[in-house]
Specification:
Length: 321
């Protein structure tokens, strides 16, 4: 029988995982939180970030683990916030160790098609799992979606400096899938500009140029990344109207004069509403694992093919996260 106190695991206590932890401090219901990472320094950073939000003064209990084997055998929610290279194997290890009601998985889900299959095998078919492409949760983007209208197809163009196209494109592709209800069908990578270059995160690679994505209803996304520091801007057009969305400035404006101000929320702000929604309603605004897998299979397949052509023709994985 489950405890009245919900049990949550955050696996991966790096930059993002420790922000999840900070967000959990804001949950209204008491939680027993287990933070897992194989790196002791990451766990220490998580302790510091918990202290920054005065977690010790909350109603929550926090425990830290370096090994999956020391985790409990049951969880209400497991948040897998590791990098993509280790996510499939780690998820499988947790799934074999503990019974999990709900999963929240970070993107990019995996670096290979076999890694995606490993995630499905670990979580199980029909599992209650969601993928954190969080614009769907943000009130500002929900307000924009409510004003988009029904004209289709749409064209979304995102451009800017070195905004991390390879690692962050999934966020933008999911946004268009959500807006249109369409599924990703193909990637066109011939306008990406080699060489791939190592990002600020060791072992994670990026590329500049233009990536085009085509969707099932005729909509398309054109993602353009340079190497400078220019802010990103989103332009969205349908058969009638054009939107200009400047996320850094918090303003979405439409060609007929409509303007919707808003802001991009931090992960530490979104975690509590996400966890409370799962515990109280059994669902949330994020895409399901099934929805996101369909997008990931096309995306990872296309990016891996380009990596093979440009870097290593024998590669079985593309090093993005």
């Amino acid at each position: 029988m489950r405890s009245a106190v919900a049990t949550v695991c955050v696996s991966g206590a790096g930059q993002l995982g420790s922000r999840y932890l900070q967000g959990l401090a804001k949950c209204r219901m008491p939680l027993r939180i287990h933070v897992h990472d194989v790196v002791a320094e990451a766990l220490e950073r998580a302790r510091q970030r918990w202290s920054e939000v005065h977690g010790a003064e909350s109603d929550h209990e926090v425990l830290f683990h370096e090994a999956v084997e020391t985790l409990p055998r049951e969880f209400d929610i497991v948040i897998v916030a590791t990098t993509a290279d280790v996510r499939p194997a780690l998820l499988g290890k947790i799934a074999r160790h503990a019974a999990v009601r709900f999963w929240v998985l970070e993107k990019v889900l995996a670096q290979s098609l076999s890694g995606l299959d490993e995630i499905v095998a670990g979580v199980g078919s029909g599992a209650n799992a969601w993928v954190n492409t969080p614009r769907r949760m943000m009130p500002w983007h929900q307000a924009i979606k409510a004003q988009l209208g029904l004209a289709r197809p749409m064209t979304l163009r995102m451009e800017g400096g070195a905004w991390g196209l390879a690692c962050n494109a999934v966020h933008v592709l999911d946004l268009l899938a959500w807006w249109t209800g369409e599924t990703l069908q193909s990637l066109i990578t011939d306008r990406l500009i080699p060489p791939w270059y190592e990002s600020k995160r060791r072992g994670v690679w990026e590329i500049a140029g233009v990536l085009e994505a085509r969707f099932s209803g005729g909509s398309c996304a054109v993602l353009d990344a340079g190497k400078g520091t220019e802010p990103t801007r989103l332009e969205v057009t349908d058969s009638r109207l054009t939107w200009l969305i400047k996320e850094a400035d918090g303003l979405a404006s439409r060609s007929d004069g409509l303007a919707i101000p808003g802001r991009m929320e931090y992960q530490s702000e979104m975690t509590a509403p996400l966890v409370e929604s799962l515990l109280e309603k059994g669902t949330c605004h994020l895409p399901t694992l099934e929805e996101s897998l369909a997008l990931h299979r096309v995306f990872i397949g296309g990016m891996l093919q380009h990596w093979r052509q440009a870097v290593d023709f024998k590669a079985i994985a593309v090093p993005i996260t």
